[in-house]
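Researcher: Go.
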Amino acid sequence: MRYYIIKTQTLFLKSMRIFDWREKINSDWLCLSELYRIPKRIVLPVEIKEYIPYPDMITEPVLMVSELVYKVIKMYGEMVYTRDVILTDHKSCENKRYYLVVFENTENKQWPIQECNIFFRNLNGIRTLFASIDLVESILRRGAVGLHLDKIDLGWKEDCHNVG
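Model: Structure:
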């Protein structure tokens, strides 16, 4: 089955710095059983280089998606839980709303890949975000920016191991 590995483009990662996220978002809390520990709305200071737009998906340090990407994920029926994250650049006086996303399918270790359009899995020991070709095309058709895509063919769930 055709999927893409999604990352934020290097240009955007090098041009953006998010401050104080470790104090507000503990990576151990990015699962359904611990999500209640993260506040419903978080404001984080950010420094972004001039003339660089905000990307529609930030994959590092944690997964955050723009309204555009969030709507596409919901359109495909994926069960996601979110927290609002407002990134504020004090230099340019700009704000951008993102959704910190936790997927329901990361909790269930027995689900088949064919039923999911977006999910995390370990690939060679690295937590990796995968998305179906249909979901990726829908995001790109809407004009999303800042995404780096690598094609990958996944067959059965044994091709990579679940992150849990």
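Model: Confidence is low (pLDDT under 50) at residues 156-164.
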